[in-house]
Specification:
six-stranded mixed beta sheet; 11 helices
Length: about 260
């Protein structure tokens, strides 16, 4: 049986691809476990991770057929397992880039929103179909609302179950860019490669700060003070700031300069 998660390690970054094309890359238990294991193995090795799907789908969410089989057998752990995988992405020190190649429903939508950055193909189709099952999207809904879209935009996806394309997702700010299908992976790879040139500690601490402001810190003075504290933490863990300043002072160029 083919691996349901395929990891391609590069220099400082990696691509993680969901590989259940015949099931529209739905997340059954084996795939959830495979993704969790891949994230653990890449911790401290990849500064950036491109997350994508095989074929015409990004991810069709949790495998509902398996869920029903489990319920019939008295097992009901899929939600907690899936929450754990998504929280692992948020807690991971790497920067995650969703490369949304096609269909992204329910849990697929959740993954887009828990990733730090996202690029979508113009063929992407993103939705929350749960209302058709008389269900609030218990993970995709909160992730959508925490992503920064407006209340009306979140309500549109949750209450009407209408899918949106890549261009609309970019206009709403759900993804950073929308590109032609053939440009999707090259663009996501280029972003990951660029990020991989930065200091790992600075990336990880900055990712944490982006989550805290304004989710937990809304006061301007408190936010500015927190920003200074973040840099103190970075300096306590790495000499990258000191080296970068010295390099700049002597006429050298640091990663990211001139972008």
């Amino acid at each position: 049986m083919a691996e349901t998660i395929v990891v391609s390690a590069r220099d400082g970054w990696a691509e993680v691809r969901i590989n259940r094309e015949e099931k529209r890359n739905a997340m059954n238990r084996a795939t959830r476990e495979g993704l969790a294991n891949a994230l653990a193995q890449l911790r401290g090795k990849a500064k950036a991770i491109v997350l994508t799907g095989t074929g015409g789908s990004f991810c069709a969410g949790i495998d509902l057929k398996e869920v029903e089989q489990d319920r019939a057998a008295g097992i009901d752990s899929s939600s907690e397992e899936w929450i754990g995988v998504n929280l692992a992405i948020r807690a991971h020190p790497a920067i995650f880039i969703a490369a949304v190649n096609g269909l992204a429903l329910g849990g697929g939508s959740t993954m887009i929103n828990v990733c730090d950055l996202a690029v979508a193909s113009i063929k992407a189709s993103i939705g929350c179909p749960e209302m058709g099952f008389a269900t609030y999207p218990g993970m995709a809904g909160p992730a959508l609302q925490l992503s920064g879209v407006t209340r009306k935009q979140a309500a549109w996806m949750i209450l009407t179950a209408t899918r949106i394309g890549g261009e609309t997702a970019a206009r709403w700010g759900m993804v950073n860019e929308c590109v032609e299908p053939e440009d999707l992976l090259p663009r996501a790879h280029a972003i990951a490669e660029g990020i991989s040139r930065f200091d790992a500690v600075a990336l990880a601490e900055s990712k944490k700060a982006i989550d805290r402001i304004p989710a937990f810190i809304t006061d301007w003075k408190e936010a500015m003070d927190h920003g200074q504290m973040v840099n103190e933490v970075i300096r306590s863990k790495t000499r990258a700031q000191e080296i970068g300043r010295a390099n700049f002072a002597t006429g050298g160029k640091n990663p990211g300069q001139g972008i």
